Amino acid sequence: MAEFDYFSLSESTLKNLAENGDIEAMLTLGLSYYYGYFGECNVSIAYDYFVDAYAEGEQRAAPFLGEIIYFRQVSISGYTCDDDYSAKAYKLYKEGEEVGMMAATRGICKMMLRGDYLVRDVQGAYDKLKKLEDMDDECAALVRLIDDGSLSMDDIRPNNEFGVEDEEQPEEIYDDSDEGRIMRWLHENVPEDNGFPLSIDLDDDILAHLDDYIKDDIDESCFEFYEYFSGTTVKDLLLDVINSGDDALEMLVALAKVYRTTQGMDADDYARGAYWAYKAAVIARKKHDEGCNVDIDYLDLLIIALGELGNIFFSYSGYDDERFPDANLAAKYYAEAAELDDILNYYNFNINAGRAYAALGRYEEMENMLLDKGFPRCLGQAWCGQMYYIAGDVKSALKYWKQSLEGNSGWGEYFLGRYFMRIGDAYSAVRNWQKGEEKGCLECSAELAGLHFSRAEDRQKNIDRLSALSDDDECVGACKYLYKYYLDREYEFDLSDVERNMLSGDALQRGLRKFCPYCAMLYARDVIETGISNGDSIISDNDDSVEKAMKLWGYDGNKF
Description:
By secondary structure, the chain is mainly alpha-helical. It has helices spanning 11-19, 23-35, 43-55, 62-70, 82-98, 102-114, 122-132, 137-147, 178-186, 202-206, 215-222, 234-243, 250-260, 267-290, 298-313, 327-340, 349-359, 363-371, 377-390, 394-404, 411-422, 426-438, 442-449, 456-469, 478-487, 496-504, 507-513, 517-527, 544-553.
């Protein structure tokens, strides 16, 4: 008997059959609404029918559910980040593969091409797609794009959008005033259309802040190298970016950094910072994929934009807000930045990604970032050891620290010195720091410079040495000893300039992530204004959110 063609039935007939438990009708309705066979596409209704069919054990619905979830064509309660959606989608795709669904293999290939949830593997995806190109137009199109080297992330879209030319939207009419040009530019490369993870209101969160004064913040702490910026506000900065043809994208990253540091006193500022960093990442990725302006390193701009996104989501605004910190998003963006920076490892985003994974308890992924990504092995071993130490696994920590001593980073010696000092073995601590200093580790130099407070004749020498090591962008442990000198009644030292620099630049956040107790104290006192508790903890006992943030960053409780 010939197989019955459900697609020949009317919409109303299929609905009646589905209501009476006909699984094939449920699946047909899902496909019809998803691909617009009844007229317009309706993903939400399609999703409901696919869910109903899947709940009845129909695995053929799995890859279509996976696609809708992966591309976030629906919102799912309880899913808070891209990894939640991607993990669920991958599980559904694998179920679809088990029953031979080509749509499932195609979906997994898209995840491989984008590097979402899976390790980015263009060659592996290509090999799979090549086997399907004669049976599926979209697979064939992706193969052609990979062959000619023109594949971009915009080409990897939901299957129900494949082959459909984008309808030309009526262009908004903006005048040629500065405001009109900014509005036109804001509606291009919109972060929300490219997967931005936060809800931003263009009027209230962006346009209302165009007059925010930022000149001093950029000149003094965030953007000293862009000496030609003559404006004073966000609006002026955006006009410079627009006038440059987006070549000054680093200004958007600097603006994100302003909102994270100098102005980042509440979660909404952090969200605005994330918006500008994401906007920079979207534009930089597209320009890099299109091969625009060979004199501008758009790949490097993309890396630092993704890194700044990681910094924002791994930061804490000082207020109880569910958006920050978000270790899942921090790990995602740090890992993406590290993957793109896998040749020079210039930015050390592998360390940040490893720390974020450690905060999530995902130690296998932590080790992958620190040991298996072409990252300097001795440096990765040192940080692996510290992450295990914070988790309470001293045996693993000592193993990795000792392995790190074979390399030239000096970080294994630094962490071992801290460990020995904490257990009361000052001799072993000093020996390790001396060896680390010989390898050029500034943290070891700072520890050694700050050890001797009793000898008055050494004080000025140590002050000068520590001051030379400290700056407003990098905490190398020097500031905690400057602070200890400051507390010495026999020695007068003005710490205010050091504190101002640290609060306005990146040093405070970097110090927190390098376990500097002075940074922890300064953060607690001046950023969230909770004060310092008595006892062993350097953070306030009555502020659970602060303690959560410090634990997330991996602060190990080491005081002086």
